[in-house]
TrEMBL record:
Species for this entry: Gymnopus androsaceus JB14
Classification via InterPro entries: CAP_dom (IPR014044), CAP_sf (IPR035940), CRISP-related (IPR001283)
Family annotation (SMART domains): SCP (SM00198)
SUPFAM superfamilies (alphabetical): PR-1-like
Phylogenetic classification of the source organism: Eukaryota, Fungi, Dikarya, Basidiomycota, Agaricomycotina
Family annotation (PANTHER family): CYSTEINE-RICH SECRETORY PROTEIN-RELATED
Domain called SCP: residue spans: 15-154
Name of this chain's protein: PR-1-like protein
Length: 157
């Protein structure tokens, strides 16, 4: 069973989504609807507790992932993806979590979360001044699947 309730996630996503649209006035992003199949697919991937993208192994879906410890939640994850809007340049668009969120052709969304211990790869520890405790404690691993997928080469919209 998917551990993320439908309505709160959609409400939070729509709230952040509206904020994103204000930042990117040139976009004509469509409306997103919740999809239980995508949510189940997201849960399937998050259950693996591997902090990397599925790279299409789950189906022809777009995907955003995020993880964090402590008070990190779905709003924080969505906010992190939305924060990439600051790097968005309509004259030279680059693909990102943000562009998947606003992709015009994407109409369906499903998200899930899993509590994972030790999810952060050792490469994340290099250069950080965090204690080992940070990397070893449980993290919330968020996965959102999108359909149709965005960030398609040659179809930037």
């Amino acid at each position: 069973m998917v551990r993320m309730a439908r309505e709160p996630v959609i409400w939070r996503f729509r709230s952040i989504y509206k904020t994103i649209i204000r930042f990117v006035r040139n976009t004509s992003a469509g409306n997103l609807e919740w999809n239980n199949t995508l949510a189940s697919t997201a849960q399937q991937w998050s259950n693996n507790c591997v902090f990397e993208h599925s790279n299409g192994t789950l189906g022809p879906y777009g995907e955003n992932i995020a993880a964090g410890t402590g008070t990190y939640n779905i709003s924080t994850a969505l906010g992190d993806w939305a924060a990439e809007s600051g790097d968005y340049d309509p004259s030279n668009p680059q693909y990102s979590h943000f562009t998947q969120m606003i992709w015009k052709a994407t109409t369906q969304l499903g998200c899930a979360v899993q509590s994972c211990n030790g999810i952060f790869p050792s490469s994340y520890r290099v250069g950080f001044v965090f204690s080992a405790y940070f990397f070893l404690q449980d993290a919330q691993f968020y996965v959102c699947e999108y359909y149709p997928q965005g960030n398609v080469i040659g179809e930037f919209s």
